[in-house]
Amino acid sequence: MTDTNRIIVVGAGPVGMIAGLALAGEGVPVTVLDRLADIPTDHRASTLHPSTLAMLAPLGMTDEALERGLHSPHFQFRDRASGEIVAEFDYALLADETPYPLALQLEQHKTIGLAEARARAFDCFDLRREHEVTGMRQTADRVEVDVRTPDGATERLAGRYLIGCDGGRSLVRRAAGIDFPGFTWEERFIIVSTRFDFGAADGFRYRNYIAHPDQWSAIIKVPGDDDRGVWRALFPAFTDQPDEEVLADDWIQARFAECLPYDPPYEIEHRNLYAIHQRVAASFRRGRAMLAGDAAHVNNPVGGMGMNSGIHDGLNLAAKLAAIWRGEGDEDLLDLYDRQRRPMAEKYVQAQSIRNKEMLGERDPEIRRRRFDELRRTADDPDAARAYLRRSSLIAMVEEANAIA
Ligand SMILES: Cc1cc2nc3c(=O)[nH]c(=O)nc-3n(C[C@H](O)[C@H](O)[C@H](O)COP(=O)(O)OP(=O)(O)OC[C@H]3O[C@@H](n4cnc5c(N)ncnc54)[C@H](O)[C@@H]3O)c2cc1C
Known about the structure:
The protein has 12 helices and 22 strands. It is an alpha+beta fold. The chain has a 7-stranded mixed β-sheet, with helices on both faces. It has a 6-stranded mixed β-sheet with strand order 8-2-1-12-21-20. Residues 10-16, 33-36, 44-47, 108, 132-133, 165-167, 171, 191, 274, 293-295, 301, 304-308, 310 line the site of flavin-adenine dinucleotide.
C-alpha cells in the first residue's frame, strides 16, 4: 500500500478496534492510532446485546466472547420502596429471530482484546499505540493527521478517509468543526464493584435496575479478572455531595445496604465517578472524516447501549468504506452512513437511555406508579415484551437504519 492509500482510525477503543478489524478483514489497509500504551481496564461497558453478538459473528469474535462472558437471558426492574420486582424480561422471546437470545456480560476491555487479537492476523492492519493525534486537516483527495509519537516527536500521516473513534471528547469532531449538542445530567454516576454475591440473594439476575426517587441503582454481574464473577453497582451522586464523600467507604456501604442489607460490610473492589452526558453530533460526516461511537454520540449507561450502538456505527461505516475501496460505490455511501445512523442514535439510544434513567429516578409518586404499571403490562404481554426487547437490544434500530436508502 502507498502511505496515503489507507483508512486512518483514531482511537483503539471498542469502536475503533472493531471497525479496524472489519476493514482489515475486507482487505482495506487501515492504520489505527491510540494515545494509550495499553487497553484501559477501567469499568465501563459490560453488556453485548443480541444485535451486536450477531454482527461480531462474521468477524470471528462471537464464539470466544460467548465462552468468556456470562450469559444473561433475563433482566429485571425493581422498586426499592416496595421491594417488588416490577417487571422481568426474558430474551427467549427473541429466539425465533436471533441465534443469540441473551445479553452477554463481558467487560469492554476484553471485547477490545478479542478484536485486536483477530485484527493482528491481517497484514493490512497497522496498530500504533502511544500515538496521539493532535491535529487533523483535509485536502480534496486526502486527510492528514499530526501524531505525537512515543519519543515525543510529531509525525504527519495521511489517508484516503478517517474515522474518529476517539471518544466523547473527540479531537476529530472538534477539528472537523462539528457541534455536539445535548446536555449533562446534574448528578454524577458512581460505579462500584464488590465480590458480594447478589445472585445468591433475593432473586437478582445478572442485570437489575432498581428504581428509587433518590437513590436508584443498577446492579450487574461481570466475569471479573479471575472469571470468578464480580458485581458492579451504579449509583447516582448528586452535585451537593463532594467527590471524597461519595467515594468513601461509608457512603458506598450505605448505598449497598439500601439495596440489600448485609453484615459484615460489603467487600469493595473498585470505585469510580463519571459525569454523564446525552449528546449527538450535528453530523457524522465532514468531507473525508467520519465519526463513530462516543465521538458521535454519548448517553447514560442505563440499558447498556453506548458501546453497542457505537460498534454498530463502526461496522456500518466499515462496510461502506470497503464497498468504496472495491469500486462498488461512491462517496454518497458516506452520506448514507450519516442518514442511517444519526437519526437512529436520537430515536433509539438517546430516547431509550433517557427514558430508562428517568423511570429509575422518578420522584413524582403518581408518574412513578403509571410508569411501573406500563412496564408491568409490557412484560406481561408477550407481543409488547418482544417489541420492548427488540428496541432495548437495538435489533429494531439496526433494521430501521438499514432500511434507510
Ligand atoms: C460507567 C459506564 C458504564 C457503561 N456501560 C455500558 C454498557 O454496559 N454497554 C454499553 O454499550 N456501553 C456502556 N458504556 C458506554 C461505553 O463505555 C462507551 O460507549 C464506549 O467506550 C465507546 O467506545 P469508543 O470506542 O467510541 O470510545 P472509547 O472507549 O472512549 O475509546 C476511545 C479511544 O480513543 C483514544 N483516543 C482519544 N483521543 C485520542 C487522540 N487524540 N489520539 C489518539 N487516540 C485517542 C482513547 O485512548 C481510547 O482508547 C458505559 C460507559 C460508562 C462511563
